[in-house]
Amino acid sequence: MKDIIKLIDIYKTYNSGKPNEFLALKGINMNIAEGELVGLIGVSGSGKSTILHIISCLDSYESGSCTYNGAELKDLTENQRNALRNKEISIILQDMSLIPDDTVYKNVRIPLMFNKDVPYKDVNKKTLDAIKLVGLNDNHIKRKITELSGGQKQRVAIAKALVSNPKVLLADEPTASLDKKSSNDIIELFKKINRDSGLTIVVVTHDPKVAEKCDRVIEISDGEIIKSNE
Amino acid sequence: MKKTLALIFNNIRKNKLFVSFSVLQAVLCITFLALSFNYFYISFDRYFAFMHTDLQDCYQTNGEIIDKSSDVGETLYKYLDTISDRNNWMISLYHFGNFEGKDPVQFSAFNKGLAEKAYIPIVDGSWFDTSSDEIQIIIPDQYAEDKSIKLGDYGKFCYYNYPSSGKKDLSFNARVVGVYDHSLCTEYSGGYSISNMYKRYSERYGLEKYRPLILYIPDFEKIGAYGYLNSAFIEKSLVKNGVDLSKNKRFCDTSTYLDEAISKDVIGQGSAVIAFVLMLICYAFAAVCSLSIMRQKKARHTYALYNLSGCSIKKCIGIEFATQFIPFIIGLILSIIVFTVLVYINIGGVPTICFILSCAFNIILMMIVFLQTVYSLSKNKIINSVRMGSNERYY
After folding, report:
1. Which helix (H) or strand (E) holds A30?
2. What backbone torsions phi and psi does residue A103 show, to the nearest 5 degrees?
3. How many CB pairs under 8 A join A and B?
4. Is B179 helix (H, G, I), strand (E, B) or coil?
5. Are A141 and A103 in contact (CB under 8 A)?
6. Is the pLDDT of residue B338 over 60?
7. What H or E segment, with its residue span, contains residue B300?
8. What are the phi and psi torsion angles at A11 (to 5°)?
9. Which has the least CB within 10 A, A30, B10, B242, B382?
């Protein structure tokens, strides 16, 4: 399989030059192949989320190379980064990245509202398709996020991430706030989407049980990769 | 564009309180300005009335002889035509005097008083022949006696102007059709002169015999509401001086107009203050809704998510600005409607000035909002907001 994401010797420092300077990543080398379901595991503060932020162009890095489909992310303009997040790489953050006082429908359609390739008349159908894809039904469409359970919220977040049909899905602790059953459901949903559509998925977790369901697990500790299992 | 508008209106819908207060404050702003300017303008006019030479302002002919076909002549004739009942009036043919060849200075005291919108009563049960081609005037009896002017004399009169006004005297040919008791016009004190005169006339001749009618001067109508109300001030001054208007048929006839005018005057002053207070309250609420930390956090969270989904920071600022700007626009549109109504019911004093000032005021508010928006949604804050994720509590 072709590598879609490559990280070579990535270093990242927070609060550089300040007393609270912190070296988050220490020469990370990582390849993620197209269609892979990868689990990034590690304790809190190990640098997992930082890797996701760098891949999704939310954060920069001091040295090394991070490429998506051969394009160096550091060299992209702001507009190109925005376009990349809009069409190619979707990210689900720890807080699920939803607007609580908006409905499920309005949350899910957000990426499409900034996608110039999707005409306004198609937004409705694509939004409803995405909502159905994650297992939510018509009853949920007009409900506000605050009225949903944790598992349902996560499904909405996944629908929002999938609505613009990206190539890569990055999920930061998608099961952290869920009970065991909901966690299993979400991971199964990731596996199903990965299997059915060939979407590349990177899941950050600190839960070994979640990680072991991925095709490959990369363990990170203190900003370094300490183990990578097939 | 449709997508962006959909997002903007979605954001507006979610900020109902802010929208309501923004719209309200914009409407109240212009209402306040309209009412207060109207009141201010009236007050100004009252205190500086002597500076106005209404007929001249509207119909100056630079000293030319006027006839019926001229603008001034036509206006005067039209004015006279408005008098349907020729008996027992008070009529506002002030500023006239200076029979041909006579010294106009003799009329200075007379003019000074009358220039303050006093009205001259006809004491001889006089008349105007509105079917005549001539301009007909009445003059003080003392002056007629001094200058040997008799009823029916025809000659050149001068509408005397104050030298300080820088305007030329207005001359016209007229026939003397009446005289009035000059002794009753010697004491003038601003708007109260008319009441003094009327009181004396009442004492001397009795209300039943002389039932004065204060005419609504058409010249004033051209200027706007202030003339309308100014007449009301004079009438009010009559009441203050003990004249019982209700006993007089003529005044009863004009009572509707009088009551309306007085109520508008009171409403104008009261409403201006109320509108101003309400405007400040609404603006304070709008500002609180817009600038509150809670809303800032919610907005930042929303735009962080937009940015996460591929929306540029510039566009985020644009959407937020439009979200806050559109309520002002709605408010301004409503303001125009409100103001049109105010003008229609003749309460607006200086529409253009009010509107410009209101717009300027709202533009200043929008600039504040814009700067706040740019500051709030500056790149670092948005990115931080995204990076912090669940660590930052937005709600």
Report:
1. strand A22-33
2. -80, 170
3. 71
4. strand
5. yes
6. yes
7. helix B293-308
8. -120, 135
9. B242
Question: At A122, which CATH number?
Answer: 3.40.50.300
Write out pLDDT tens, residues B217-227.
Answer: 223 222 222 22
On chain B, the residues whose CB falls within 8 A of the CB of A114 are 3, 306, 309-311, 315
pLDDT score at B120: 33
Query: How many separate domains does chain A show?
Result: 1
Residue B247: its pLDDT value, please? 42
Query: In this predicted complex, what is the ipTM?
Result: 0.89
The HSE-up count of residue B162 (CA atoms within 13 Å, CB side) is: 15
Chain B residues touching residue A160 (CB < 8 angstroms): 309
Q: How far is CA A70 from the centre of its chain?
A: 19
Task: Quote the pLDDT of residue A108.
Answer: 92
Q: Are B212 and B88 in contact (CB under 8 A)?
A: yes
Structure tokens at A11: 């270093």
The mean per-residue pLDDT over the stretch A108-124 comes to 89
Please judge whether A111 and B309 are an interchain contact, meaning their C-beta atoms are less than 8 angstroms apart.
yes
B33 half-sphere exposure, CB direction, 13 A CA radius = 22
Burial class (CB in 10 A: 0-12, 13-18, 19+), B209: exposed
Closest CA to B123 of B192, B210, B3: B210
Residues in chain B: 395
Q: What is the rounded average pLDDT of the residues B267-294?
A: 66
CB B22 within 8 A of CB B327: yes
Q: Cβ A58–B387 below 8 Å, yes or no?
A: yes
Structure confidence at residue A78 (pLDDT): 85
Q: Taking residues A29-43, what's their average pLDDT?
A: 89
Residue among A171, A194, A200 nearest A183 (CA): A171
Interface residue B390 vs chain A (CB under 8 A): yes
Residue B168: pLDDT band (50, 70, 90) is: very low
pLDDT at A178: 76
List residues bridging with B138 in a β-sheet: B178
Residue B310 near chain A (CB below 8 Å): yes
* Residue B171 β-bridge partners: B158
**What band does B184 get if pLDDT is binned at 50, 70 and 90?**
very low
- Parallel/antiparallel/unpaired status of strands B120-121 and B90-91: antiparallel
Burial B167-206 (b: 16+ CB within 10 A, else e): beebbbebbbbbbbbbebbeebebbbbbbbbbbbbbeeee
Is B308 within 8 Å of A83 when comparing Cβ atoms?
no
**Nearest CA among A57, A95, A92 for reference residue A162:** A92
Range of the domain at A113: 3-229
Measured between alpha carbons, how far is B108 from A43 in angstroms, rounded to an integer?
101
Residues paired with B179 in a beta bridge = B139
pLDDT of residue B281: 72
Give residue A64's identity as a one-letter amino acid code: G
